[in-house]
Design brief:
This protein is α/β, with parallel strands linked by helices. Helix content is 42%, strand content 13%.
Length: 252
């Protein structure tokens, strides 16, 4: 099965055929090639992110979204940039509001921590978008267990839309870029494995889309973050297409 965006048909095989090209959008990636020698996976170290930019809905907004059975979004720096644009598009196409918890630089573990806090405090709506994983290229084995943890928290009665990753930081050396691509593939393979195990998990295939374009720089400005408006528009279109084409479920 494939997906069509802007007239381009995407498939999982297309991505796997590109091998090292498979990668995904990111968060505040501040590791440099200078740290590679001390790093196990070759992409460097994820620097402290807790003081970086955020885009987090207010308590009142979260409660309004939940009352309307809207959409919760958990993202990294790409969604700090793109979240409001996505929320407007979701509202226009689905008539559902969105609440968001986006934090630049956060790895998936931190996003799942936020998901767990929101479930405890507010409950969860029928549909949740997870747009994290880019910062897990620095430690790929940590990603898969966090996907499983998120799915346990969310449960089988809600739908999860998880955007896969594209990371190939253009300011880094060829050595680091190769590591970024390898580690992105590692992260995305774990997400594919999870999709096969969880019927309510849907992978939004941003990496496959990037693998089809002639010049990635028109869609990702630094090998991680979307260009505005073009990359932002196509990535958000992939997400909203997934949301509008899936079945509606009722949260438990």
């Amino acid at each position: 099965m494939g997906t069509s965006v802007g007239g381009v048909r995407l498939s999982r095989r297309r991505l796997l055929g590109f091998g090292a090209v498979a990668v995904a959008t990111g968060a505040a990636m501040v590791a440099t090639s200078n740290s590679v020698s001390a790093d196990t996976y070759g992409s460097g170290q994820l620097d402290p992110w807790e003081g970086l930019n955020t885009s987090i809905s207010s308590d009142d907004q979260i409660r309004r979204v939940l009352a309307a059975d809207g959409v919760f979004l958990f993202g990294d720096s790409i969604m700090v940039q793109d979240g409001n644009h996505l929320a407007r598009r979701v509202l226009t196409l689905t008539h559902k509001p969105m609440a968001m918890h986006n934090w630049a630089g956060q790895p998936t573990e931190a996003a799942v921590d936020a998901l767990e806090r929101w479930k405890t405090k507010y409950g969860l709506p029928s549909r949740i978008v997870m747009a994290v994983g880019s910062n897990d290229i620095f430690k790929p084995p940590a990603f898969g267990p966090q996907v499983d943890r998120a799915m346990r928290i969310i449960g089988p009665a809600r739908e999860v839309f998880w955007v896969n990753t594209y990371v190939c930081r253009t300011r880094e050396s060829d050595l680091v870029q190769r590591a970024d691509r390898r580690n992105t593939n590692w992260v995305n393979r774990q997400l594919d494995d999870a999709e096969r195990r969880y019927p309510n998990l849907h992978v939004v295939r941003w990496a496959e889309f990037i693998a089809t374009v002639k010049s990635t720089r028109h869609y990702v400005r630094d090998g991680v973050h979307t260009t505005v408006p073009l990359g932002q528009r196509f990535r958000d279109e992939l997400i909203t297409d997934a949301l509008t084409s899936s079945r509606q479920v009722t949260g438990s």
